[in-house]
Amino acid sequence: MLAVPEAGTSDAPQPPDALTGDDVAGRVVRGGAARVSGFLVSNLLAAAGALIVLRYLGVDEFGRYGVVLAIAALVQGVTDAGLSVTGTRELSLAASAEDRRRVLAHLVGLRIVLTGIGVPAAVAFAALAGYDSTLVLGTAVAGAGVFFMSLQSAMVIPLSVDLRNGALTANEVLRQAVLVTGFVIVVLAGGGLIAFFAVQAAAGLVLLAVVPLLLERHDRVRPRWARDELRKLAVVGLPVALSAVLTAAYLRVLVILMSLVSDDDEQIGLFVTSTRIFELVAALPVMLSVIVLPVLSVAARDDPGRLRYVVQQMTQLMAVGGALVTLVLVLAAEPILEILGGAEYAAAAPVLRVQSIALFTLFVTAAWSPTLIGMHRQVSVAGAVAVGLVIAIAGGLVLIPAGEAEGAAWAAAAADTFVLAACYLLLRRAGPGRELSLAFVPRLALAAAPALAVVLIPGLPAVADAIAGAAIFTALALALRIVPPEVTGLLSRRALSR
Q1: 123, 265, 412, 451 from 475: Cα distances, Å
Q2: 109, 241, 312, 471 from 161: Cα distances, Å
Q3: Hey, CA dihedral for 288, 280, 255, 150, is it positive or negative?
């Protein structure tokens, strides 16, 4: 029922030209700009949807709703972890159009198997945990949405490989738009909790329905389940999956440690609040790393010179982007928290400022980890992340008793700093890191220092500090030529077109 009819195999074009042409850098930059724009729109829609559901359901029912969605998100995260990244790389390296279709068909098949196991397991957990019948049924309904959306995300992996980031952006925005529209309909109809879970399933069905409009004919495949192919994908993807799961586990483990070690419920709440904001922003560098992964995978195989060039430009771009986002969070932490949660959450500002350090390291790591994965060094990346998790736990046990929420934030920052250093050493060992120039780092610090110094200007509110600081940093980064030329060229063309 869900499979798309398979196209013929004789004359399908092979798309990897998108990853090897002279304009590949420009395509990546333009695609990144489109994805960032879509990221902002999607998050605005997500915020609107959360506001609708929160106000309609009330605190108690929203809590029950959130429990089910957390279970569903866990299923989606575990069954998806690493598979999208692995699929993107394997499709990028496919030797022929037929190989590409074969890999894609088995990716879709593996996603069906994994999610088909995960959703019933989630329903069983809800029943065994003693949830009432509404939450158990809700888990099943929301799980259906997870199944549909997971299947669709596997089907559209070719869009990432072909650098069709406009189509990916439209797909992401469509998902959030359908969810918000569904929530509005449920509210107007006076629906109950199950109806909100049904919106998740309906959104998944809508996304599946648009797959034929997004994909070229030669990328529409039926799922396949050849044992050897599935085993190969699982073996290749397991380290990537482990890395993704462990990275996501850092802050969640620290939240659990806070609940075990700390007796202060307010401190636990402050750390959870800061963590939610961190996770929202942290999705950006992860998304950008997936955009560049196909180019890095092909360059790692065919063109070492291009690989070194892309790594250099990505390192500078992610460092500048990470510094800018970190700067804004540091200067505007209090107003951000007050806008989202009210004045009582302003006490989480120092925690968010510490976590901003981890956010900067995550941006830079997002330039190096996809390079290592593209070079088939995913086992090393997973090992580095695993050690980082151990550091987070050990740091939390030492720092939380003394520093409470800020101590937990410092533990996360220490773990991410270690992963950054480990990825740099791995990159040097692999080759590209030996010629990676870090000469831009002093200029980056030179741009950041006066931007942070705006806090010394008396009388300026925090929001004005953040706006002024961001403007100063951006102007200096451009003047000092830290921003890669592809990005500045894109900005210049857009300015001239106005």
Answers
A1: 53, 43, 31, 10
A2: 19, 19, 21, 34
A3: negative
Contacts of 336 (CB under 8 A, 6+ apart): 277, 329, 352
DSSP-derived letter for residue 10 is S
Residue 262 backbone phi and psi in degrees, to 5: -95, 145
- Structure tokens that stand for 411 in this block: 């533990």
Count the neighbouring beta carbons within 10 Å of the beta carbon of residue 481: 12
Question: What residue has token string 């939380």?
Answer: 400
Distance CA 109, CA 460 (A): 57
268: left (phi over 0), alpha (psi -120 to 50) or beta: alpha
Distance separating alpha carbons of residues 427 and 44, to the nearest angstrom: 36
How far does CA 392 lie from the centroid of its chain?
20
Q: Which residue has the higher pLDDT, 411 or 98?
A: 411
Given pLDDT bands bounded at 50, 70 and 90, which one contains residue 8?
very low
pLDDT at 202: 92
The DSSP annotation for 252-310 comes to: HHHHHHHHHH---HHHHHHHHHHHHHHHHHHHHHHHHHHHHHHHHHHHHHH-HHHHHHH
Q: What is the radius of gyration, based on Cα positions, of the chain?
A: 23
Q: How distant is the alpha carbon of residue 232 from its chain centre?
A: 25
**pTM surpassing 0.85?**
no
Phi, then psi, of 81 in degrees rounded to 5: -50, 120
CA–CA separation, 177 vs 192, rounded Å? 20
Average pLDDT over residues 422-436: 87
- Show me where the domains of the chain are located: 25-225, 237-492
pLDDT tens digit sequence for 208-229: 898 888 888 877 888 888 878 7
Q: Which residues contact 189 (CB under 8 A, 6 or more apart)?
A: 195
Instruction: Name the amino acid, one letter, at 268.
Output: I
Residue 14 is encoded by which pair of tokens? 């092979």
Question: Helix or strand or coil: residue 166?
Answer: helix
Nearest alpha carbon to residue 28 among 92, 103, 97, 99: 92
CA distance 378 to 388: 15
The model's pLDDT over 126-158, given as tens digits with 9 standing for 90+, comes to: 888 788 888 899 889 999 998 998 888 888 888
